[in-house]
Design goal:
A six-stranded mixed β-sheet has the order 4-3-5-6-11-10, sandwiched between helices. Strands 2-1-7-8-9 form a five-stranded parallel β-sheet. β3, α6 (about 100-105) and β4 (about 110-115) form a beta-alpha-beta unit. α1 (about 10-25) runs parallel beside α12 (about 220-240), α2 runs parallel beside α16 (about 350-355) and α9 (about 170-180) packs parallel to α11 (about 200-210). The longest helix is centred in the middle third of the chain and has 17 residues, at about 220-240. By secondary structure, it is of the alpha/beta class. It has 17 helices and eleven strands.
C-alpha cells in the first residue's frame, strides 16, 4: 500500500533488530501505552525479533479496556429507556456490563446505533427532535476534540435533546500512577503518537525528569515501533531520562493548539475511575459546569450505579503491565471474543484480543 509499505519493509526491520541486539547489555522492560501499538507488535511478531533481555509489557492504552464496568452499566441503563436513541462507536457495543451489553440491548429492541463520528449523533438529534440522542464519549485525548466539537455544535444549534456520557481519560496521569506503584516494572515508555499529535509531548518531560525514565513518542507501523524501541533502549543504556520524538511526521512538542483550546473550552479535568486500576486523580475529562445540560449521567440520573468486576478477569494486572494475557486462567476458555469476561478481549485495541487473534497466548500456554 502506498505510503505504508515503506514502514513495513522486512529488510529494514531486520536491520533494526540487529542494531538492538548489538546495543543491549542488560535486561530492560519497556511499556507501550497504546493498544494500537500492542496489536502491531503482536501481529508482526516484533516482540519475537528482540533479544531475550528486552521485555515488552502492555499498558493501559486501550480506551475501551480502561472504561470501568459501572460506566458500561450506566450506558446500558440509559440505552434501555424508550425515549433514548443511544449512539456509540462500534467497539463499545460488545463490552460486557454486569449482566448484559449494548448489543444485547439493541437485540432486545433498544434504539442503539453505531456511528462513525459524534457529529453523526448531533445530526441525529437535529433530525429526531422528539428523541433524546446520547453519544458514548469514550477515549483518550485523541478522540476528545471531536467529542468537544459535538457538544459545542449542539450548544450553538440550541439542541436540548443531545447529551454525551463522558468517560475521557488522560495518558500522563496514568503513566505517573504506574510509576508510583510499588510493583512497577516499567523502565521506559513508548508514548502514543496520536495522543501526542493532539497534546504535544511537553507534558511528558516532567515525568521523564521526575521518575528518571526515558519516553519516546512513537508511531504505529512496525518500523516506527522498532525505531522507538531502539531509541528507548539507547537512552536506557546511556543513562538518559528524556523525551524523544520518533513520530516527527505527525507530532510536534506543542501539539495541536486549536484542539487544545477547544478541549479547555468544553471540558474540565477530573478524577476518573479506570477499569482494574481504580481512581487516578486528575486523569479524566468531564463537561464544564456551564455545559452540564449536555451531561447524560446527570440528565438520566444514573450517577449512583456501581458495578463489580468479574473475579476471573485479570484486566487490572494486564493493564498495569504486571501480567500478560497468557497468564489468565480464563483466556481462550471462559473468556473469548464471543463470550468475553472483560473489555481487553473485546476491543480492537485490547491486549487479550491481540493475543487471541494472533494465537500468541495459546502458544505460550502450550510451551
Amino acid at each position: 500500500m502506498r505510503f505504508v509499505d515503506e514502514y513495513r519493509n522486512e529488510a529494514d526491520a531486520q536491520q533494526f533488530a540487529q542494531a538492538i541486539e548489538r546495543l543491549v547489555t542488560r535486561p530492560w522492560t519497556i511499556m507501550e501505552v497504546c493498544g494500537g501499538q500492542t496489536h502491531t507488535l503482536i501481529k508482526f511478531g516484533i516482540d519475537r525479533m528482540l533479544p531475550e533481555q528486552v521485555t515488552l509489557v502492555h499498558g493501559p492504552g486501550c480506551p475501551v479496556c480502561v472504561t470501568p464496568m459501572e460506566l458500561i452499566d450506566k450506558a446500558i441503563a440509559i440505552a434501555q429507556r424508550p425515549e433514548v436513541m443511544f449512539t456509540s462507536f462500534g467497539d463499545m457495543l460488545r463490552v460486557p456490563g454486569s449482566t448484559t451489553d449494548l448489543l444485547s440491548v439493541k437485540a432486545a429492541g433498544g434504539d442503539v446505533r453505531m456511528v462513525y463520528s459524534p457529529l453523526d449523533a448531533v445530526k441525529l438529534a437535529q433530525q429526531n427532535p422528539s428523541r433524546q440522542v446520547v453519544f458514548f464519549a469514550v477515549g483518550f485525548e485523541t478522540t476528545a476534540p471531536a467529542n468537544a466539537m459535538a457538544v459545542w455544535q449542539a450548544q450553538q444549534l440550541g439542541l436540548d435533546n443531545f447529551s454525551i456520557l463522558c468517560s475521557h481519560v488522560l495518558v500522563p496521569p496514568a503513566m505517573e500512577a504506574l510509576l508510583n506503584a510499588p510493583d512497577n516494572l516499567v523502565q521506559g515508555f513508548l508514548a502514543a503518537g496520536h495522543v501526542c499529535t493532539i497534546m504535544g509531548y511537553w507534558e511528558y518531560e516532567v515525568i521523564a525528569a521526575n521518575y528518571s525514565v526515558p519516553i519516546v513518542v512513537t508511531g504505529f507501523e512496525p518500523l516506527d515501533l522498532l525505531q522507538g524501541i531502539y531509541m528507548t533502549l539507547k537512552a536506557l543504556e546511556e543513562g538518559r531520562a528524556e523525551v524523544e520524538n520518533q513520530y516527527t511526521r505527525s507530532v510536534s512538542r506543542a501539539g495541536n493548539k486549536a484542539a487544545q483550546q477547544l478541549l479547555q473550552q468544553v471540558f474540565a479535568v477530573c478524577d476518573r475511575q479506570w477499569r482494574g486500576i481504580g481512581v487516578i486523580p486528575a486523569s479524566g475529562y468531564r463537561l464544564r459546569p456551564e455545559l452540564a445540560v449536555f451531561d447524560a449521567e446527570q440528565r438520566f440520573e444514573v450517577a449512583a450505579i456501581t458495578a463489580q468486576e468479574s473475579p476471573l478477569c485479570i484486566a487490572g494486572p494486564i493493564l498495569k503491565g504486571l501480567k500478560k494475557p497468557g497468564d489468565c486462567s480464563a483466556f481462550g476458555t471462559l473468556c473469548t471474543p464471543e463470550r468475553p469476561l472483560g473489555a481487553p478481549m473485546v476491543s480492537s485495541e485490547g491486549a487479550c484480543a491481540a493475543y487471541y487473534q494472533y494465537g500468541r497466548a495459546i502458544e505460550l500456554q502450550e510451551a
